[in-house]
Specification:
The protein has 77 residues and is mainly β. The protein is 0% helix and 25% strand. It has a 4-stranded mixed sheet with strand order 3-2-1-4, with no helix packed on it.
Length: 77
């Protein structure tokens, strides 16, 4: 999926991981309206942007063809 579109994450953007919950929950109470995006898009110009570890930010109101989200479903038996 990397390289199709940047993927929105639930986390609010912050410069470091210092304030993140230790149990892996997303950080949703950070100041500002920026959300974390990961991956890369078909418009990425640097190879470093195409890995899942690539982390950047965008404002929540951004409407562009290069940012999207991935649908996922948990299956419990």
């Amino acid at each position: 999926m990397v390289g199709n579109v940047y993927q929105w994450l639930q986390d609010k953007y912050h410069k470091s991981y210092a304030a993140t919950p230790s149990n892996g929950d997303p950080l949703e109470d950070a100041a500002g309206s920026a959300r974390v995006i990961r991956g890369g898009s078909f418009e990425s110009t640097r190879p470093d942007d195409l890995g899942a570890e690539s982390r950047s930010w965008s404002i929540e109101a951004m409407n562009t063809a290069t940012i999207g989200f991935r649908l996922a479903r948990s299956i419990t038996e």
